[in-house]
């Protein structure tokens, strides 16, 4: 499963999300919303107004959600 974290610099919830994903052994990519206008528009089109936005397969959510991260399977 592809996991992408759309984040902003100095984002406390983003850093907590990275740590939680790493603890679960889940590989992820990071997209900086301040540097990628197309990504920012995509996130806004989904109705999100705060970072991080996590896209995990067909699921997506905003904010630090350890409950949802815990439900993801580790990727090799």
Describe this protein's structure:
The protein is of the alpha+beta class and 76 residues long. It has one domain: Glutaredoxin (3-Layer(aba) Sandwich), CATH 3.40.30. The chain has 3 helices and 4 strands. It has helices at 12-23, 37-45, 66-70; strands at 3-7, 29-32, 53-56, 59-62. The longest helix is centred in the N-terminal third of the chain and has 12 residues, at 12-23. The chain starts with a strand and ends in a 6-residue tail after the last helix. Electron transport system for the ribonucleotide reductase system NrdEF. InterPro entries: GlrX_NrdH, Glutaredoxin, Grx-like_ET, Thioredoxin-like_sf. Residues 3-61 form the Glutaredoxin domain.
Brief digest:
One of its GO terms (biological process) is cell redox homeostasis. The protein is an alpha+beta fold and 76 residues long.
**Count of domain modules:** 1
Give the helix tally.
3
Summed over residues and divided by their number, the pLDDT gives a mean of 94
- CATH topology-level name: Glutaredoxin
What is the helical fraction, as a range of percent? Answer: 25-40%
N→C terminal distance = 10 Å
Q: Estimate the strand proportion.
A: 15-25%
Identify the strand order in the major beta sheet.
Answer: 2-1-3-4
Cα shape: globular
- Radius of gyration over alpha carbons? 11 Å
Order of secondary-structure elements: EHEHEEH
Assign the structural class, choosing from mainly alpha, mainly beta, alpha/beta, alpha+beta, or little secondary structure: alpha+beta
CATH architectural designation: 3-Layer(aba) Sandwich
Major sheet attributes? 4 strands, mixed
Instruction: Supply the CATH class.
Output: Alpha Beta
> What is the fourth-level CATH superfamily?
Glutaredoxin
The low-pLDDT segments are: none
